[in-house]
């Protein structure tokens, strides 16, 4: 559907889903298309691991997306639920390491059916807030057009329904993974720099889009050591609590296999926290992320959805370093454009 340069996809086909959906579902219908204009930054507030992490540093919005017009396609970076590791590795590293490293689907372009299913899951209530910001309409539309028309992409399809197109923007010569480590450091990705796994998160992609269209660089925010420690603790606790409370995927870890360990939930939580703190996604040793947490000099240098939108004390409007979108208030997203659309988000 995209008209930029197409690159054949030769490689087989997090924010983690943070909407308050009843269950993760890849494909389905939207009730209608949304009303967010071309180039609008769309923000959701929802529950989940990323919500736990961002709430711990005093921020609210949990996901950000780039709209390509009312009822049209959406570009965003996210990650589907990982899978349980195979036997016997599941007992030491419960989550499949490659799932955390690869961060699938990562940066992708989906239609209205796909984004609706991402946000609302399988009959879930959806995010507690869904708003869009435009600011300067001409500049915002230019950002939307730059990503849609000028960035090459891989023509790909859903791994659940091969008949559904999902395009993957090509940045730095490859598809972009979703990387939890971006919450520790953006690694220069907002201005086109490399990342250890060519990864981004939803908000570092919005910063990149802002920069690549010539609207200015969004400087990553330095979170204090105290906030980094709070975020690490919250991420660990979120995974562990979900596992111990038998919630969703995390609650199913190890239930079908006899592991002679009393703390498989703690191991899963360590593994995810390690991935965020030091991009060590293949170990469940608690010493790694706790070492980062307990070293007073460590900080996080990152870009959050609230920074993109100019909320929670971040620069906004005409202040130096503010985004085009931050000059606007949040407008409620309404699903009132056109008819039902079928799509998938992975």
The run of helices and strands is: EEEEEHEEHEHEHEEEEEHEHHHEHEEE
**Biggest sheet statistics:** 7 strands, mixed
Summarize the amount of helix as a percent range: 25-40%
Into which percentage range does the β-strand content fall? 15-25%
For the termini, the CA-CA separation is 16 Å
Mean pLDDT: 89
Rg, Å, rounded: 19 Å
Sum up the overall morphology in one term.
globular
Contiguous runs where pLDDT drops below 50 for at least 5 residues: 3-14, 18-22
How many domain modules?
A: 2
The counted number of beta strands is 19
Helix and strand composition category:
alpha+beta
Number of helices: 9
Signal peptide: 1-19
Keywords: Signal
Organism: Sorangium cellulosum (Polyangium cellulosum)
Protein name: Secreted protein
3D structure, described in words:
The protein has 346 residues and is α+β, with helices and mostly antiparallel strands. It folds into 2 domains: 6-82 and 98-219 and 305-344, no CATH class; 225-294, no CATH class. It contains 9 helices and 19 strands. It has helices spanning 49-55, 97-102, 112-120, 137-150, 202-212, 225-244, 264-278, 286-294, 305-309, and strands at 6-8, 15-16, 27-30, 33-34, 38-45, 63-68, 74-79, 105-110, 129-133, 153-155, 168-171, 174-175, 177-178, 199-200, 221-223, 300-302, 331-332, 335-337, 341-344. A hairpin with a 2-residue loop joins strand 11 and strand 12 (174-175). Helix 6 runs antiparallel to helix 7 (264-278). The protein is globular. Residues 3-14 and 18-22 have low confidence and may be disordered.
């Amino acid at each position: 559907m995209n008209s930029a340069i197409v690159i054949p996809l030769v490689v087989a086909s997090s924010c983690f889903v943070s909407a308050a959906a009843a269950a993760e579902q890849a494909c389905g219908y939207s009730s209608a298309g949304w009303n967010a204009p071309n180039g609008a930054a769309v923000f959701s507030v929802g529950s989940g691991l990323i919500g736990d992490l961002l709430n711990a540093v005093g921020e609210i919005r949990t996901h950000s997306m780039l709209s390509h017009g009312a009822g049209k396609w959406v570009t965003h970076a996210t990650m589907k639920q990982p899978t349980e590791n195979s036997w016997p590795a599941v007992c030491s590293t419960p989550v499949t390491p490659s799932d955390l490293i690869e961060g699938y689907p990562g940066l992708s372009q989906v239609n209205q059916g796909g984004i609706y299913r991402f946000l609302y899951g399988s009959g879930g209530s959806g995010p507690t807030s869904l708003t869009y910001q435009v600011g300067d309409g001409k500049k915002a539309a230019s950002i939307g057009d730059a990503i849609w028309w000028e960035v090459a992409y891989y023509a790909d399809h859903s791994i659940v329904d091969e008949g559904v197109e999902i395009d993957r923007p090509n940045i730095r010569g490859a598809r972009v993974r979703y990387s939890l480590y971006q919450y520790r450091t953006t690694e220069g990705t907002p201005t086109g720099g490399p990342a250890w796994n060519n990864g981004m998160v939803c908000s570092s992609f919005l910063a990149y889009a802002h920069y690549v269209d010539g609207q200015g660089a969004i400087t990553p925010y330095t979170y204090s050591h105290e906030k980094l420690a709070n975020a690490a603790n919250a991420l660990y606790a979120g995974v562990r609590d979900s596992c111990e409370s038998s919630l969703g995927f995390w609650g199913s870890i190890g239930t079908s296999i006899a592991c002679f360990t009393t703390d498989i939930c703690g191991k899963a939580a360590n593994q995810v926290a390690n991935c965020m703190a030091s991009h060590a996604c293949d170990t469940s040793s608690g010493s790694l992320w706790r070492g980062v947490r307990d070293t007073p000099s460590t900080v996080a240098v990152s870009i959050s959805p609230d920074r993109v939108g100019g909320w929670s004390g971040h620069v906004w409007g005409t202040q130096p370093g503010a985004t085009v979108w931050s000059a606007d208030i949040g407008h409620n997203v309404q699903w009132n454009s056109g008819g039902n659309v079928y799509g998938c988000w992975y």
